Amino acid sequence: MSNSRAMATSLVGAKVDGVAGYLFFTEQGRMLSRRIEPALDDVARRLTGFRSTMHKTAEEASKGGNMLNEAMGDRRQLPQPAAAQRQSWPF
């Protein structure tokens, strides 16, 4: 790793640590955390819903492709989309 990359990584880490320290160890930071927590929960809920919608869309597209192949006389099944593997929620 080059020196400039190591320096940039260190600076980013220091900033993240500073923000975390502010949020967890100061009264103003704790108040801010309590205020933004519902908004973050809402964002996470919306992302979960979006992910579910995309999964359903991929499944339906795969089914449609299989139906089209059958209608055209090709009996091969299209591979299932990666979303069908049920990846666990990363958070």
Radius of gyration (Å): 23 Å
Helix fraction by DSSP (H/I, runs of at least 4)? over 70%
Low-confidence stretches: none
User: How many distinct folded domains?
Assistant: 1
How many helices in DSSP terms? 2
Q: How many β-strand stretches?
A: 0
For the sheet with most strands, the description reads: none
Distance from first to last alpha carbon: 29 Å
Structure description:
With 91 residues, this protein is an all-alpha fold. It has one domain. It contains two helices and no strands. It has helices at 3-25, 27-71. Helix 1 packs across helix 2 (27-71). The longest helix is centred in the middle third of the chain and has 45 residues, at 27-71.
Question: What attributes characterize this protein structure?
Answer:
single chain, 91 residues, 2 helices
Give the SSE map.
Layout: H1 3-25, H2 27-71
Helix pairs in contact: 1-2
Q: What would a concise description of this structure say?
A:
With 91 residues, the protein is mainly α. Helices cover 75% and strands 0% of the residues. It has two helices and no strands.
